[in-house]
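#dry-run=false #mode=assembly
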Amino acid sequence: MTTTSTPAPPHAPHASAPRLLGEPVGVDLARHVAAFGPLPAQHGVKRGHAGPLVAEVERSGLAGRGGGWFPTGRKMQAVVAAAHSARKDPVVVVNAMEGEPAASKDSVLVHRNPHLVLDGAVLAAQAVGASVAYVVAHRGGRSVGTLERAVEQRAARGGDPVELRVLAAPARYVASEESALANFVGEGIGLPVTVPPRVFESGVRRRPTFLSNAETMAHIALVARRGAAWFREVGDPAQPGTMLVSVSGAVANPGVIEVPTGTTMRQILGLAGGTTGPVSAAVTGGYGGSWVSASAAIDLPWTPDGLRPAGGTPGAGVLAVLPSESCGLVETARVVQWMAGQSAGQCGPCRFGLTAVSQDFAALAAARLKGTGLAGLEKRLGIIPGRGACRHPDGAVRFAASALEVFADEVKRHLSGHCSAGRRTYVLPVPAGTVTLPVDRPGEEWR
Amino acid sequence: MSGHVVIVDRIACDGFGTCAQLLPERVILDEWGYPIIDATPVHGSERQHAKRAVNACPRLALSLVKAPHDGATRTPAGPPAARR
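#status=ok
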């Protein structure tokens, strides 16, 4: 395995001026208005027609920061068109769930600038013709209280042109999947439903639903104030703007940073204080994303197209860095076990398939899997994708398959009963009490 | 020639396996007993077998729908599912 070390450069690279995290003002609405300006008025919005902001968002090139990277303006257009043809009022849903254990960007954004997220929700609702916007965060997380206080402040100062409602959804990974979120808002059941129809045409209570990530909404709030041309001033031309990255693992200063899209992993690691030693690989996107080899990805730009040559994805802005002394297969076994446990259990291929993959991976990590077992694992990874109602199994399988590729040398070692790792602590976070592996090392007893 | 394809509602499906018995031309079962479906349109006599399989599903999870032009059975025009 090649290793890459990036100590903090003597002059850390400077990101462009942060847009979303630059001026943390918290729930204080007066300070928010002083920092970002008042909520821009939207004129010429007609029922059943897209407001001017939709075209402006389309021109900005903003793409969804929740992981899909789909053009936000086109999504809004699709909602408006569906509402028009169904003759139903659409609904807006903001996903502030932060379902990824290795991500913290949405809660950091909500904590620092909740009104940017709420402004975006209000503006998007007006632009697509919705009269209510729901903001959904994890039950028990700190975002719920912050958002509620921020909404109270807005109500006390005259309120908004559309209704804002903060909801607390169960802290389950699949609950933040889009059909599950719409199902939760409409029916109180945070489980995925069979698609199609997709939420943009039939979401909350069968209304066309514009559902987007909290960060995306905050960008909309700034596009409405400063325009599409301003938005495109920084970042990659194909997916412009800035993005939030949750950096964790073997870096000196883990946390959330804001960088222009197209920033390289080397620059991102520099901004996070550099690596703490040699690193071998990294998780990109999240636990439904992919491993990349550090040497292959270190100078690639962080965009969906840019990371593809190394098999990576910016996804939800997760970058978790693996130190060279850690075993990527052990880390993967823990994450896959967690992902299997997060299946809603509604679809057989996910419920049984992920469990089987998780057991295979546990055996592989413990260097107990034989060649035939590996063939079985690969076969399972091949038949599961595309066979769930939602994309949860696809993401888990993508993550597991990327590990077999990136850690191919380590796979060989494990098949012959060895593990090269010299470290017994784990890098990738999984929620407490959800994973039973520590995987034992060769020669050690199970448990 | 536009045809019809077999699709399964994954949430409704409980893995009875009737579909694989009645329509082996398009359906095989995975190791857990859940259908793996070949989305090639059914034509001629296959269509009758497909209809029989649809009607025989104890969970009403199987349906016969018009084949989309691009061959994709899951995702119509519109944004891909984002996931957080």
